[in-house]
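Here is the promised in-class demo. Please do not try to memorize the tokens; focus on the logic of going from shape to residues.
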């Protein structure tokens, strides 16, 4: 009976060790292009920031974090952190921080009261939301956020409809999409190489 009890205890210990090893998260690979989410504090509020799978090897810790996340700073109590509506959504929804009206055939700059730090090698494109475009003829203009811009992100709403459009605080008004960009040096040349199209069209 003593041997059976000892064998039973050893079995339990073995199961405990096995479960612990299976439940322990593996450290991220230094060459992996993906990373787990983490939290950054902002004053008394802790905000969950989603990693954007932009990580590369060979960087210091701070540089790696800066290149891997979309850092967001809240500028007022009316602001809301940009979020993706679903797991595979490309854009981060932007929310209005104020009540305002976009008159018919007019435009209005709407504040979000958030500032962002776009990861290096990317820029932020403020794009319209399909629902607003279809139902209310609301488009977005001047939608480029440079990586070095640290001010209040504004959304220029353009109303192509025939009725005024009411914006309420907390409404989703646009989406922020991060796109890779290239900024090569500009070199003046005497002649460009020939192509099949040539100068056809205007761009």
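The designed amino acids, position by position:
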């Amino acid at each position: 009976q003593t041997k059976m009890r000892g064998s039973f205890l050893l079995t339990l210990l073995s199961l405990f060790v096995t479960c612990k090893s299976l439940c322990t998260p593996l450290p991220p690979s230094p060459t992996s292009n993906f990373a787990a989410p983490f939290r950054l504090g902002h004053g008394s509020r802790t905000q969950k920031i989603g990693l954007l799978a932009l990580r590369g090897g060979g960087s210091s810790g701070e540089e790696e974090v800066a290149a891997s996340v979309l850092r967001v700073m809240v500028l007022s109590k009316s602001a809301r952190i940009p979020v993706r509506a679903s797991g595979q959504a490309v854009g981060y929804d932007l929310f209005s921080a104020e009540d305002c009206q976009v008159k018919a055939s007019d435009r209005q700059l709407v504040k979000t009261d958030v500032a962002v730090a776009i990861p290096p090698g990317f820029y932020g494109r403020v794009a319209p939301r399909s629902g607003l475009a279809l139902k209310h003829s609301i488009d977005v203009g001047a939608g480029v956020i440079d990586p070095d811009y640290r001010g209040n992100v504004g959304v220029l709403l353009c109303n192509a409809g025939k009725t005024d459009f009411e914006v309420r605080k907390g409404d989703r008004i646009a989406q922020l999409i991060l796109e890779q960009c290239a900024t090569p040096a500009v070199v003046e040349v005497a002649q460009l190489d020939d192509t099949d199209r040539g100068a056809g069209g205007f761009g």
